[in-house]
Design brief:
8 strands, binds heme C, 8-stranded antiparallel β-sheet, alpha+beta, 288 residues, 9 helices, 2 domains, 26% helix, Cytochrome Bc1 Complex, Chain D, domain 2
Length: 288
């Protein structure tokens, strides 16, 4: 868990977004009809991919971010028991769909110096659906809950992971994960690792391999867990679990998260697009 959140808290921002301080006025309201007619399933998928690593939206607990149940009935930064940044504590407004839309369009500067640190704005095509989904789940919708066949694809355990967690699958099974071990006084130890659809892990270094699996069914979010061995650095093994949702947001950078290695050593983790052709397993699955 700690590892997953550490990853998120150092995620990179998209830069250059135009500043849109909330004080500059009430953002445009979103018509109730548009929200009531929005696509709940797409909204849920977007929320799961971008928010659920840090937030529950139904009645639930705080994760790295506050629980969002009842969001549209409360003042910003007031959820009891959650330690908000001064920015959110001092902002004086009640959450509305329009306010949330404005923040998600510009998560870095709409509430300057907030702690949310999401890596990038939510694309416009996802925002209405996501806000509509959040209204239903947080108890704010005054329209009936949409009736959806197979409402929770991830819960249907007869389906393969590729269908239950499609964005996680596409991101992790076809790209390269790079770990860089910072070693005091020595050069960095860098290794590229490939998570394969059959649950194995291979790498670009002889002797380094491992396995991965998905851990679900507990009170927390579904987790992606892996064990790797054979590193040329002490202690030679690494075992970690990260929320699947956190590994589902496609983004590429050599340094996306940090974790603690052996004796205070820092391991930087990142994801690079694609992987070498000779690592055949994933390529086959992709077309099949
Ligand atoms: C990396 C973890 C993380 C992710 C991912 C994340 N949040 Fe947050 N969120 C936080 C934190 C931390 C805060 C408190 C921010 C502060 O105090 O400045 C917060 C605060 C909020 C609040 C304000 C709640 C209140 O009571 O005032 C809303 C609304 C919110 N997030 C919505 C979202 C949505 C929607 C997404 C997905 C697009 C999302 N968050 C993704 C961590 C996250």
């Amino acid at each position: 868990m700690r590892f997953g959140y550490a990853f998120l808290s150092i995620a990179l921002f998209a830069t250059g977004a135009a500043a849109a301080d909330y004080k500059s006025g009430e953002p445009p309201a979103i018509a109730r009809d548009a929200l009531a007619k929005a696509d709940y399933v797409k909204g849920r998928a977007a929320f799961q991919a971008r928010c659920s690593a840090c937030h529950t939206v139904g009645e639930g607990t705080d994760l790295a971010g506050p629980n969002l149940f009842g969001l549209f009935a409360r003042q910003v930064g007031t959820k009891e028991g959650f330690d908000f940044s001064p920015t959110l504590k001092n902002a004086k407004f009640k959450w509305t769909p329009g306010r949330l839309n404005a923040w998600l369009a510009d998560p870095k500067t709409y509430l300057p110096n907030n702690n949310m640190m999401i890596p990038e704005p939510v694309p416009e095509k996802d925002r209405l659906n996501m806000i509509s989904f959040m209204m239903v789940e947080s108890g704010a919708a005054d329209w009936p809950r949409p009736v959806i066949a197979n409402a929770n694809a991830a819960a249907d355990t007869s389906k393969p992971y590729s269908e239950r967690y499609p964005s996680f699958w596409n991101h992790m099974m076809f790209n390269t994960v790079r770990y860089a071990f910072d070693r005091e006084g020595q050069s960095e130890y860098v290794i590229d690792v490939y998570y394969n659809p059959d649950g194995t892990v291979s790498s670009n270094q002889k002797g380094v391999d491992g396995f991965w699996h998905i851990k679900e069914g507990g009170p927390g979010p579904a987790m992606f867990c892996y064990a790797l061995k054979g590193f040329d650095v002490e202690p030679g093994v690494m075992v970690e679990c990260i929320p699947i949702a956190a590994m589902s947001i496609p983004r590429f950078n050599e340094r996306l998260w940090k974790s603690k290695g052996y004796k205070g050593q820092v391991i930087n983790g990142g994801i690079l697009p694609g992987r070498p052709q000779q690592n055949g397993g994933a390529e086959k699955q992709k077309s099949g």
